[in-house]
Design a protein that fits this description.
The chain has 296 residues and is an alpha/beta fold. The protein contains 10 helices and 11 strands.
Length: 296
């Protein structure tokens, strides 16, 4: 019988998210930053096979700081504080791999999609080198607590911010902010690599004018922009895309090599220039959206 990895995480004083400019929403744009969290519960670290630095390789390095100048101009942001390896907010709640648990209920629904198959479901099975993260099989009931105390808390808050924005402006665009490995960008485009990817579910998640406007801001700053390559959008982009309710989404992916030393998880000399460019582009989008009396 395979070893069991049992823990009891204390959620009482755990900070799940930080919100910025949420009391007075000034623009019909919400920034969601679900993958920049750096906190690992100490109980969790006891059952993992690797140290924190190893597990942070799947993290969206410093993305919250890249958009901070825009936040300082009044944009609303919701940022996850817990690392995505513990719970991945950009997955469906059902994306659980039954093989990871010693007591997975046989009659449970399973969304065993591509993320689960590669080990990157709502609870990751592998690290960036595709090595198993855990020292044994997990307790399904413990993972359910993770989802209740972390996943649900973030998503409930995001929905409340969206509802509040729609009530004020009549519509809302969620810009889901991420970073992507420079290696992936170079493999896909060997000319000069992709700097920025805008995922709009192939023009389904928001009016094309919105994503075109943001792309234009980056093009004007000499960034190479691609739509839906290598990412068209994941769970947050899909789940909160509800045009009939005037809810729109757009996934922003920034090439990590532009602003960070990916190996050592540190900012590079271009970080603040990139942060200014990213934030200026987002702020221009926010101003453009605020001038709309209704969605396009």
């Amino acid at each position: 019988m395979e070893q069991q990895a049992n823990i009891d995480v204390n959620y009482k004083n755990m900070k799940i998210y930080t919100e910025f400019n949420a009391d007075k929403i000034q623009y019909p744009l919400i920034l969601s930053v679900p993958h920049s969290g750096t906190y690992f519960p100490p109980e969790f670290l006891k059952i993992t096979a690797f140290d924190e630095k190893n597990m942070r390789r799947n993290e969206d390095l410093f993305v919250d700081e890249l958009v901070q100048p825009a936040v300082e101009k009044g944009l609303t942001m919701l940022k996850m504080e817990v690392n995505r390896v513990f719970v991945d907010l950009n997955r469906d709640r059902l994306e659980l791999d039954p093989s990871m648990y010693y007591n997975y209920p046989r009659d449970n629904d399973v969304l065993y999609d591509k993320h689960c198959r590669v080990g990157l479901g709502v609870v990751h099975r592998i690290n960036f080198k595709r090595e198993n993260l855990y020292k044994g099989l997990l307790d399904y009931h413990e993972v359910e607590k993770r989802l209740k105390n972390v996943y649900d808390v973030y998503h409930n808050k995001l929905q409340k911010l969206i509802d509040k924005t729609i009530k004020k402006f009549g519509f809302c665009l969620v810009l889901d902010c991420h970073s992507m490995l420079s290696k992936i960008c170079s493999i896909i485009d060997d000319r000069s690599g992709i700097d920025i990817c805008l995922g709009n579910l192939f023009s389904q998640s928001c009016p094309r004018e919105m994503s075109d406007f943001l792309a234009g801001q980056f093009w004007d700053k000499n960034y190479r922009v691609e739509f839906n390559c290598p990412y068209s959008g994941a769970f947050i982009t899909f789940n909160y895309c509800q045009p009939r309710r005037s809810m729109y989404t757009l996934q922003l992916e920034i090439n990590r090599g532009l602003y960070a030393d990916e190996e050592n998880l540190q900012k590079n000399e271009d970080f603040y220039e990139v942060a200014d460019d990213v934030s200026e582009s987002i702020y221009a989008l926010a101003q453009s959206l605020s001038r709309l009396k209704e969605p396009l």
